[in-house]
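Students often ask why we bother predicting the structure of a whole assembly rather than each chain alone. The short answer is interfaces. A chain on its own may look different once its partners are present, and contacts between molecules only exist in the joint model. In this exercise we take two input lines together and write out one structure for the complete complex. Read the inputs first and try to guess which parts will touch.
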Amino acid sequence: MNNNLFFDFTLDKALKTVVIIREFAAPQKLVWDAFTKAELLDLWVAPKPWKSQTKYMNFEVGGSRFYAMVSTEGVARWSKQTYTSITPITNFKYYNVFADAEENLEIPGSEWDVTFSERFGSTIVIINIYNESMERLEEMIEMGFKEGFTMSIDNLDNLLATLAL
Amino acid sequence: MRRDIFQAIADPTRRAIITLIAIQAMTPNAIADNFHTSRQAVSKHLRILTECDIVKQEQQGREIYYSLEIEKMKEIDNWLFQFRKIWETRFNQLDNVLLNMLNKENEQ
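Now the answer. The structure tokens for the assembled complex follow.
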């Protein structure tokens, strides 16, 4: 399903910025809500079998979302997102840092920029993730997701196209 | 200090060296001829690349030749694929959430 929806994933040459573009078959307001309301975010941001649990979320500039990705074994990996800019239904920016359950932050984090636009009833979302360090980008992958994903050799060819060397 | 494939490719000069020796094995001098930086700087990059296991050295007569470990490069693909896969999964889940939201709106 959903194979006809546009999806693009690229890593820039300096290996610092990841750009993700995806089309959704829903109006902009609805997609905006799905990205900015805790109860909706918790339904989709954790790739199965992980679960997203938001402890609190104040969606306003200077406010934060403090949440955990919880594994089937109950292992929780905490993150804190602090909103730096909000332009309703078109853009929001935040600073994302890994943390422990007591909100002790693991700096450096990454800067996220999420832009929404509607075209012919479907919504395009562009996500820019800027990482201060390469290690941070690696950590983003390693943060417990490994087990959940099996790699397919068949997809290597497709990936070569996205590899900017 | 930890050395891995990502450190190898995080620097533009090292990426250029990788591209050069991907085509053919080269001596440090031949590699340095392609850059405006000092020979020492190139040697330092080659040392890091060697520590990352992305290049191998081979002695031929009096010269040392550097060549690329192609298998090692595949690690990057695998890693990037995992990351891409996470987002694919997320977005497919979001498609379902949106579908439910749309259905609820239509019911009202």
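Check your guess against this: The domain at 7-147 of chain A is CATH 3.30.530.20 (Alpha-D-Glucose-1,6-Bisphosphate; Chain A, domain 4).
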